[in-house]
């Protein structure tokens, strides 16, 4: 029996319980084979190390070999102290587990003299932490608090397990994920002290509660703005795919280190469920995209999901109660059947779809994804963010979790959050404020149907999960503009990794018996001379001015360089007498410019950006405010290319 919605005054969780009841009526029950499976002993640590980029350690243990402390120090030398501690903790746990499995009667020295706890509050050395902010613990020195069992674990979803211990010390270390500074307190209700649902209300998020330090600026209706980094703000889509696995490895390690500080654990259950291989609903997101990219190259979200969003934005943004008022069950069932038959044929008529029915289809599509939008790996981690005492650290954790999502899930989440924010922006008309939206969407993102034969019970644990998941969705919607950024400290670490790898390859190529020709030390090509003199060559293969030598100064930005390839600059050069056309359609302005096809001029537009390519990075689209002279000193061997980036 579904739990009745709570009664009370003010903004409570009424919408959440109402939506949860509708989901229970709509979904039915799961077979036992569909339930999440608990990983075997040691499997979680092995998977974590593999995802963090340390799969070679797992392979070494599997082959019966051990890893010395010195070797472990070497493989973690590019990490900060807290990141290294997180890795070492999993390595030691896995090592102990593997030894127990292979020889229960054998004693290892590490079992007699365990690794000392490195979590003591000794201050970190300045060289061991990159961009380290100061965290202040907002927790009291209370004893261990047992978290209630999860309502969702009974419903076949994720499981909240273990205990959370509030740290009795100040947390003064860590790598910044986003640069924030707190002014005031983000107050959350104490959900553990109340047994009545009606006594719980969601925390209020107000821009006036939080300000930022000198690295950020507070804007109208915007709590945070991107950090004013001289090397530019890097959005998730700015990095090449080759660099994203490195970013995700660092994000996993940093998130784990942050959770370790507060003794927070989360489960990563294995799901045993056969997805559909055709149709629109219940099909894996990756498979849907594979089909859709063949139809529309460059598609980043499923065409059906995009069509739902477009129809709702056109017809329902100002409609009162949108997302809250359910559609007709009969009409929705008929629409599903018709969409399955006609959508990809292009014969479906959206003009006949009622907005509330379309909203119901959107929520069903999200719920029926075989792998949830937030993935089984991190579905439990998102609500655990609520156990972090500081709002600023919560935002950092959410930023890291978004970085960890697969690309197709992250892109779809962004489109969904942007749509929800548009609904909130029309709340004066549609009566759907931020609290209403988050309470309705939380069960659609986190709930799952109940297994057969399992009782549907209610209680305090239900209330805790409802409040936590709703609050997390609320933060995702409200702060989405600052959650899709890549921490500058991660870029610093990646550059260090590239330099280390380049040095290693260089040493491998050295032949000790070969005499060095000292004259080669004085042979420098033009590019090296350009670097010494602060001159870079910018390539623009798709534009009329295909290349240009530019002398950098202390004020020049990436945007200034792109401006030199716009029409106002290009016309002046091409109209001058210094340009000489050549038979192949190319020409040169003295020796600093090269032109392609001057009779069919192409200039940089608003979507043209400067890219940093190679050197100690794979590829990065530069923020127009990037200080080029500082970046040039950090990556002097990079190529500089102007390209179109429609996603920035």
UniProtKB/TrEMBL annotation:
Keywords: GTPase activation. GO terms for molecular function: GTPase activator activity. Residues 11-28 have a biased composition (Basic and acidic residues). Residues 1-42, 109-153, 498-524, 572-599 are annotated as: Disordered. Residues 283-484 form the Rho-GAP domain. GO terms for cellular component: cytoplasm. InterPro entries: RHG40/28/18_ubiquitin, Rho_GTPase_activation_prot, RhoGAP_dom. Transmembrane segments: none annotated. GO terms for biological process: regulation of actin filament polymerization; regulation of small GTPase mediated signal transduction; signal transduction. Residues 138-152, 587-599 have a biased composition (Polar residues). PANTHER family: RHO GTPASE ACTIVATING PROTEIN 18,19-RELATED, RHO GTPASE-ACTIVATING PROTEIN CONUNDRUM. This is Rho-GAP domain-containing protein. It comes from Littorina saxatilis. The lineage of its organism: Eukaryota, Metazoa, Spiralia, Lophotrochozoa, Mollusca.
């Amino acid at each position: 029996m579904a739990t009745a919605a709570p009664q009370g005054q003010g903004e409570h969780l009424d919408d959440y319980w109402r939506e949860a009841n509708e989901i229970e009526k709509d979904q039915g029950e799961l077979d036992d084979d569909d339930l999440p499976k608990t990983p075997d002993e040691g499997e979680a640590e092995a998977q974590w190390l593999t995802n963090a980029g340390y799969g070679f350690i797992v392979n070494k243990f599997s082959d019966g070999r051990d890893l010395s402390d010195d070797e472990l120090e070497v493989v973690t030398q590019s990490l900060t102290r807290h990141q290294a501690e997180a890795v070492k903790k999993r390595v030691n746990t896995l090592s102990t587990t593997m030894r127990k499995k292979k020889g229960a009667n054998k004693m290892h020295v590490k079992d007699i003299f365990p690794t000392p706890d490195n979590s003591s509050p000794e201050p970190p050395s300045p060289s061991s932490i990159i961009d380290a902010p100061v965290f202040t613990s907002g927790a009291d020195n209370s004893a261990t608090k047992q978290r209630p069992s999860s309502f969702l674990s009974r419903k076949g979803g994720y499981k909240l397990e273990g205990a959370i211990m509030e740290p009795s010390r100040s947390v003064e270390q860590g790598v910044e994920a986003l640069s924030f500074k707190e002014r005031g307190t983000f107050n959350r209700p104490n959900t553990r002290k109340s047994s009545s649902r009606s006594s719980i209300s969601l925390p209020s998020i107000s821009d006036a509660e939080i300000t930022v330090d000198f690295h950020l600026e507070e804007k109208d209706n915007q709590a945070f703005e991107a950090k004013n980094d001289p090397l530019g703000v890097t959005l998730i889509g700015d990095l090449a795919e080759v660099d994203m696995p490195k970013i995700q490895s660092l994000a996993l390690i940093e998130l784990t280190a942050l959770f370790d500080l507060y003794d927070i654990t989360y489960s990563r259950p294995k799901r045993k469920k056969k997805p559909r291989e055709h149709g629109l609903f219940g099909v894996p997101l990756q498979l849907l995209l594979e089909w859709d990219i063949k139809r529309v190259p460059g598609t980043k979200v499923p065409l059906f999901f995009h069509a739902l969003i477009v129809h709702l934005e056109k017809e329902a943004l100002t409609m009162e109660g949108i997302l809250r008022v359910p559609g007709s069950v009969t009409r929705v069932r008929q629409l599903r059947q018709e969409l399955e038959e006609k959508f990809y044929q292009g014969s479906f008529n959206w003009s006949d779809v009622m907005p509330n029915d379309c909203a119901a289809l959107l929520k069903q599509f999200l719920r029926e994804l075989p792998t949830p939008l937030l993935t089984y790996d991190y579905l439990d981690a998102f609500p655990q963010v609520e156990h972090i005492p500081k709002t600023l650290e919560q935002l950092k954790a959410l930023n890291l979790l978004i970085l960890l999502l697969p690309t197709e899930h992250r892109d779809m989440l962004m489109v969904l959050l942007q749509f929800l924010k548009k609904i909130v922006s029309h709340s004066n008309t549609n009566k759907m404020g931020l609290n209403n939206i988050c309470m309705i969407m939380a069960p659609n993102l986190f709930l799952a149907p109940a297994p057969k034969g399992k009782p549907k019970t209610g209680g305090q644990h239900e209330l805790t999960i409802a409040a936590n998941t709703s609050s997390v969705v609320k933060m995702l919607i409200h702060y989405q503009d600052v959650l899709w950024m890549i921490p500058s400290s991660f870029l610093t670490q990646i550059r260090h990794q590239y330099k280390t790898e380049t040095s290693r390859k260089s040493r491998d190529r050295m032949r000790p018996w070969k005499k060095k020709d000292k004259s080669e030390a004085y042979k420098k090509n033009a590019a090296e001379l350009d670097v010494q003199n602060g001159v870079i060559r910018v390539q623009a293969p798709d534009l009329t001015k295909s290349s240009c030598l530019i002398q950098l100064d202390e004020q020049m930005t990436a945007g200034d360089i792109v401006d030199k390839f716009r029409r106002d600059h290009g016309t002046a050069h091409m109209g001058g007498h210094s340009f000489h056309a050549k038979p192949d359609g190319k020409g040169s302005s003295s020796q600093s410019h090269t032109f392609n096809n001057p009779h069919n001029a192409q200039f940089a537009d608003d979507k043209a950006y400067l890219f940093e390519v190679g050197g100690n990075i794979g590829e990065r689209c530069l923020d127009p405010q990037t200080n080029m002279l500082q970046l040039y000193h950090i990556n002097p061997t990079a190529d500089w290319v102007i390209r179109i980036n429609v996603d920035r």
